[in-house]
Amino acid sequence: MSEAAASIAVFVLCLVILVPLAMLGYRQSRRAAAVSDSDVGANFLSGVAFVFAFLASPLGILLAHLSLRQITLSGASGWRLSTAALWIAYGLTVVQLAALLWGSLTGYFS
Q1: Per DSSP, what are the bridge partners of residue 42?
Q2: At residue 42, what are phi and psi to the nearest 5 degrees?
Q3: DSSP run (H or E) holding 68
Q4: CB contact at 8 A, 7 and 98
Q5: pLDDT at position 40, please?
Q6: Alpha-carbon distance 49 to 89, whole Å?
Q7: Greatest Cα pair distance in the chain
Q8: pLDDT in tens, 24-74
Q9: In sequence order, what DSSP letters do the residues of 10-26 get, joined into one string?
Q10: Which residues pair with 17 in a beta bridge?
Q11: Is 31 buried (19+), middle (13-18) or exposed (0-12) by CB count in 10 A?
Q12: What integer pLDDT is reported at residue 25 of this predicted model?
């Protein structure tokens, strides 16, 4: 297998892993929106997930999923911030993977 084919295979594998997780995030976001109550305190992890969506997007994905899970269980507010963090982190992760693929195919890293 050539280096270019291996790079493309890794990129496709990453996307195959990310798509079901994104669908899970969509369902989590809808459930969190249904149970969120503004009278209950805000979820701290939502803000942390939003910050890490920009600093380290794969970690932002994990933290956003965890915060949506906590919101669903506790009814706390903050689902909008968690949802924004989730989609920003997914978007930046895909952009980073595409940049790595481009760099690998053009020989930029060699």
Answers
A1: 77
A2: -75, 155
A3: helix 57-74
A4: no
A5: 77
A6: 9
A7: 58
A8: 999 999 999 888 877 777 889 999 999 999 999 999 999 999 999 999 998
A9: HHHHHHHHHHHHHHHHH
A10: none
A11: middle
A12: 92
User: Tokens for 81?
Assistant: 């911030």
Interhelix angle 3-35/57-74, rounded to 10 degrees, is 20
* Count of CA atoms in the C-beta half-sphere (13 A) of 9: 6
Tokens of 21: 């997780």
Q: Where are the domains of the chain?
A: 12-100
**The two three-digit tokens of residue 67, written as one number:** 């915060």
Q: Which residue matches tokens 């890794």?
A: 10
Q: Pick from 58, 68, 62, 76: which is nearest to 26 by CA?
A: 68
Q: CB atoms < 10 A from the CB of 29, how many?
A: 22
Give the 3-state secondary structure of residue 43: coil
Q: Which pLDDT score, from 0 to 100, does residue 48 have?
A: 95
pTM of the entire predicted model: 0.88
